[in-house]
Each structure stands twice: as structure tokens, then as C-alpha cells.
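note to self: dont lose this again. the chain is below, predicted strucutre after it. 374 aa total, dont forget to put it in the shared folder this time
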Amino acid sequence: MIPFNKPSITKKEKEYIMDSLDGKICGDGTYTNKVNDWFKDKMNTNVLLTTSGTSALEMASLLCKLKEGDEVIVPSYTFVSTVNAFALRGAIPVFVDVDPKTMNIDVDKIEEKITDKTKALYIVDYAGVVPDMDKVNDIAKKHNLLVVEDAAQAVGSKYKGKFAGTLADYGCYSFHETKNYVMGEGGAFIANNEKDFLKAEIIREKGTNRSQFIRGMVDKYTWHDIGSSYLPSDILSALLYAQLERFDEIMEKRMDIWNKYNDYFAQYEKDGKVIRPFIPEECEHNAHMFYLIMPTKEERDNLITFLKEKEIIAPFHYIPLHLSPVGKKYGYKEGDLPLTEEYSSRLIRLPLYADMSEEEVNKVCEEVSNFLGK
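---
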């Protein structure tokens, strides 16, 4: 069986996890600090590790001070966490159709959705490809809106030379088992100014200024704001730090597989049998995902079944949120976002993980080729 995804775990991850057990195993221990230093050195940004990418998005929503009746512009083609984060505050999702070239939000359709109730834009970097953040930020500045970059899939990706997750007011990463770099369950939050970073630190520590107390900035700590417990165990941070020490190795392995797929299916795209991922010139992606857009939903579903019979797991992706039971409660219906509905129904993701062998990659290519040949 060729799985869709498999984390790359070596002796280093196991060694660091065992070492972490001899120290402070709760949040913000030795390995959490090592991860923080890595991001500062590699990406010139400060991060707050969280229990999940979802937690990071919830922190962003708290910092946006969203309340009941506020509107948030967001793609429908995303994971539920993107919307749950602000729906928990009573804010209402205003869904925007995709750009079918990238499956990202269509930036040119954002402004027409803005009303006097709009408070924020939640932008998703689908498949590790960043949308036109210059245009997004210009729109936000024009209308006095906050921008949250859901970069869950985009750790290591870049837009015009700048790292994904650092391109908006707030950025959110995921280190879930399915991502490029993993800690089992976990994420990270980024704020682009120090004032917001300190506020986020308080939210993350149950609404207290305990982190400032630990650093000796105050002589006691107390309740300052609403918040929750968003700190991951240092054991998980140890796993992540080992992954980050292998950052280039993992990236190169994934990119090699992505490029093999991309080269292999180029002729099929010329023949009109599939559509490959499109990478804008200003973007450097992280090889998070390789997908194909099939001509019809029926062909996509048949290919999934065909590959499963060949012991290859190649799933579809999101069901558009506006078509979900909750989306319908917000008043959305089929036909509201035609491109999202059409292209999401035709998308299939191929297996891609760092330790995938050349034989496994070849088998996936050959079996997809056998199907397309039929």
C-alpha cells in the first residue's frame, strides 16, 4: 500500500523526545525555546508555538477583537478551522470564489464583498502557494481591515522573497502529522508587530502575563485578558525541533518528488487530460501537495477508486464550506460559488511524503497513466 502521507521520523526525533523527558515537559521548555530561536534565525520572525494550527487561528481571531455580527471575508475552499476560529466569536463568514489556476481565493473578487460590517480578511495559502498578498494588503489598508494569513500548508514557502506566514497582520502555521514538518498536533502564531505579539503571548497563557513574569519583566503575574491554554508540551516541541534541523533535507526530498510528478504529467496537460498545479512567478512553494484537476467529477472519482484498487491512496480534498450543513445555515446554496464547486469536485491529490521511494513515485505515475490511457 502506498499511503497518501507519512511523516519522516528518524533517530534524531526519537533522541530529542527522550532528552526532553529529563527537563521541563510542559509548555515553553528548552525545546520550545530552541524552536523559537530557529524561526528567528531562519525566517527573522518570532513565533509562539501553539497546540494546533486551529489554536493559532483562534488566537488571531481574539486579537482581531471580532464580535457577533462582524463579517470576515474568507475562501470557501479551506479547512473548517479557518472559519471556526472566528465563527466562535460570532463573526459571519463571507465566502469568495477561487482562482481556478491556484485554488486560492480570487483576490480580484474580494473588494466587491466588503461592507460596513467587514472587519477582517482571512487568506489561505493553498497547497503552499501564496496568493497576491500585495493586493490583499492594499485592499485591507484601503478599507481599514485586518489580515490573517492561514499559512498552515505553507511553512517554508515564499512570496516575493518573504516567508509565508509573515505577510499579514497575523500568520498561522500548522505542524499536524499531515504537514511538511510535524509535531503530531501543533502550530505556531506570528504577529507582525511587538505590541500584538505581547498581547498574543497573554492570550496564549490563559490571559495572564506569566511569560513576562518568567522573563523577569514583572514581579508577579495575574489575569490581564481573556485567553486559553494554547501552549504545547515541550515533548512535542522536541519532535518539531528535530524536524526543523532537517528542514532543507525534507524540503529537497519533497521538491524532488513534486518535480517528478510535474514533469511526468506535463504532456497529459498538453493533451487536455489533466490540469497541473500552477505556481505564480512571484511564489516559491514548499512542495506541500501535488494535485491534478481532472476533466470531470466522475473521472476524478473513478481515478480515486482505480488507484485504491492498485493500493494507492489518492484522496480528494475539501468539500466547499458554503455547501456544508453549517454553510447552508448562513444562507449559502449550490451555485453561489461556481468555480469553487466545479474545480473542487475535480481535484485529486497524489501521494507525497519525504521518504517516498523512487519505485513508489514511479508506480503512482504509471497507474495514473494507465487510467488516463483508458
